[in-house]
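Morning, I've got a small favour to ask if you have a moment. I've dropped the whole record in just underneath, so have a look.
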Amino acid sequence: MPDMMSDMAIAMRCSNSLKMEAMQAAMAACESSDPSLRQHFVQACADAIRAQEQVARIMIQRGWYVPAQANGANLQQVQGNLSQWAGMMAGAAMAPGGGAEPRAQI
């Protein structure tokens, strides 16, 4: 009898594949110079995130995945770090030269 993957293993692979799809679509959106193509990649990223969220909910319901609970201090720290990073990125974009490398034409 061939080796059979468990439902949990299949769900985990689906979740990981969807995370990778979202990451690759986001990277493609950042590299795309065509606005309509960029929007397509942004939509593909959002779709993959929604699908992964559905898989994660099923995994949580079945006890296959137990996410760690974030405390308020950690959330505030992450929000502060993201705000600081966004400010630094905005400042870099305003600097002479734009702070960015030229985009490849996709």
User: Anything to note?
Assistant: Residues 68-98 form one domain. The CA atoms of residues 90 and 96 lie 12 Å apart. The chain has a mean pLDDT of 89. The chain has two domains: 1-67, 68-98.
